[in-house]
Amino acid sequence: MRYLTALAACCLLIGSCTKSGDVKPTREDDLRSGKWQMSAGALRFDPAIGADTTYNFFDSLPSCRKDDYLVFSAGMSGTQNSPTKCDPSQPDLVDFGWYLENNGNTINFINAFQTFLHQAAVSAPFTSYTGNSFTIQYKNFAKNKIDSLRNDTLTYTYSFKRK
Prior knowledge:
Layout: H1 2-16, H2 27-32, E1 35-46, E2 53-55, H3 63-66, E3 69-72, E4 77-81, E5 93-101, E6 106-110, E7 121-129, E8 133-143, E9 151-162
Antiparallel strand pairs: 1-2, 1-3, 1-9, 3-4, 4-5, 5-6, 6-7, 7-8, 8-9
């Protein structure tokens, strides 16, 4: 009986131990650990009436915009940094807020109007995520100019790579 008690105690002791090396960083930690530069951007216009059109706007951005990058900081704050200014009055960095939801599968940007998003708030699911790159996508709806009872759909897709 003593052997069974000792064996049970050993099993409990071994079972309660965890390896410290098995802790995987969260997506928030991963985002905070680097600088993220836009590598692609597209807008898909899906009108209620008419043909769909996709515009790859990243290719037409000036080089002073292509070098901008995001830094996700602790406290759910972040900055869009502009190493090369397009205009001398442009600030070096623009602040925004961010947080993840849906088990880290959706990123939300707050006060992002001055950033590349040009929106006050954006909720964008990750369509892909690796340690060195991610892609987000979100939709906006606008009244169709021909039929005001219908909405046009604007789908924005942004890809980023770790700098």
